[in-house]
Amino acid sequence: MAPLDPHSYADSTHPLTNLIELALFLDFDSKIIHGSATLHLSRPFTGDFFLDTRSLHISVIYGKSCDILLPFKLSEPDAIKGSLLTVSLANQSSFTVIFRTDSGGSALQWLDPAQTAGGKLPYVFTQCQAIHARSIFPCQDTPAARIRYTAKVNVPSEMSVVMSAAHMGRASSGQLAGAMASRGASSNQSTGHELSSSPSLMTTFGSSMGACDDNIWFAEGRVVELFQMEQCIPPYLFAMAAGDITFADLSPRSRIYAEPPVLAAAAHEFSDTEAMMLQGETLFGPYEWERLDLVVMPPSFPYGGMENPRMVFLTPTVIVGDKSGVQVVAHELAHSWTGNLITNATNDDFWLNEVLKYVLFCLVYFIRLSDSSFKGISTIFDYLIPFPKALHMSSGNCKFNVLSSLVNLPEFDILLCG
Q: Are 5 and 346 in contact, with CB atoms under 8 Å apart?
């Protein structure tokens, strides 16, 4: 075994996962997700394949069809890394894992209505940084293993879902049943809803992919929301929230999501988001993630913010009425280049994300305010220059070299001389 990362079971001799197709049934009564994950590898593999899990209950693993069962073994949990899931493959490049989460899963925060701003519906959100994606679905949970994903999320019809991915549509249980009947499909096996355009997205809503029985998936009063993430991300940037969530547009590429009692104040507080994005693009190049949507979380959200690509999570405590809370958006926006496009290669080096982000945040926020009185960060690059190998570039079309680009910026003279 040659580990990729000291905090992951992923083996450097194994192929990396390119795409994960998820079907997730959110059970708010039991605070459990019933799920299915189809993993597509970069090449066929024969032998024992290693995945990270934490507090996941694995039911069955099968190959391209439900009648090809794959042997697997789940190890005793390690206090830090969780349990090693070993799957025996025979020249296979894809397989499906049927699982359910634990009510105490480390990435999942289930809130009762009293813990929300509206007080009407329960709420759930994820926090996968740094090594908690493995408690939602089995994966190679290291920044070195960047993935694309699709997700079908089944929730009560009065709720809405947001994810760090493009939203492709929403269908009710009645529509789902009709779609399934029209195509005459009875199998729960995925038919391969790749990221390319489909003639009818409705057909991709219908199957639970084995996550649960059809009578549960199609139950009255449920809806399915469909998402796809075309850009490659490290697993810690997988994000999801579901509850009483509504939205308002801030610009053509930015939207604010929040519970209804908070929405108006949030829209006012973060109305300058587009200006921040333009400032970032002026300094660092194109914003590669298409959209920068923001989610104001319930009052019990225990973090300041989380830089999930396309869908930043924010604490409601930054809504103060004078728009000063937008500095938190600038902080998370900076991660769109440092952390999201360029990522620490292993979980040992997360400090690089934060140090680089701090430099970019200062450039985006303070230069925009014409404040050149930077103090205290003139020696940051003395620490950064020796560590280029600790950074992991996106496998997409990113050609942004943060070290060389930053030191060549004329604005960087302000940082050094301020």
A: yes
User: What is the torsion angle, in degrees rounded to the nearest 10, for the CA atoms of residue 227, residue 230, residue 235 and residue 241?
Assistant: -20
- Report the distance separating Cα 351 and Cα 339, nearest Å: 10
Residues for the chain: how many in total? 418
Residue 206 pLDDT: 56
The string of pLDDT tens digits covering residues 323-360 is 888 888 888 898 898 888 888 888 888 777 776 666 66
375-to-346, 359, 379, 417 alpha-carbon distances in Å: 30, 11, 10, 9
Instruction: Name, in order, each residue with C-beta under 8 angstroms of 114's C-beta and a sequence gap of 6 or more.
Output: none
User: Closest by alpha carbon to 95, among 180, 38, 164, 171?
Assistant: 38
**Band of the pLDDT at 368, cuts 50, 70, 90?**
low
Q: CA–CA distance from 224 to each of 158, 184, 231, 238, 243 (Å)?
A: 11, 19, 22, 18, 13
Q: What token pair was written down for 55? A: 């507090």
Separation of alpha carbons 255 and 248, rounded Å: 6
Note the pTM of the prediction, 2 decimals.
0.84
State the number of CA atoms in the 13 A half-sphere of 336 facing the CB: 30
Q: Hey, how many other C-beta atoms are within 10 angstroms of the C-beta on 22?
A: 22
Contact residues for 324 (Cβ-Cβ < 8 A; gap 6+): none
Beta bridge partners of 95: 39
φ, ψ for residue 203, nearest 5 deg: -65, -25
Between the alpha carbon of residue 218 and those of residues 31, 59, 77, 213, the distances in Å are: 19, 21, 35, 9
Q: Are 138 and 52 in contact (CB under 8 A)?
A: yes
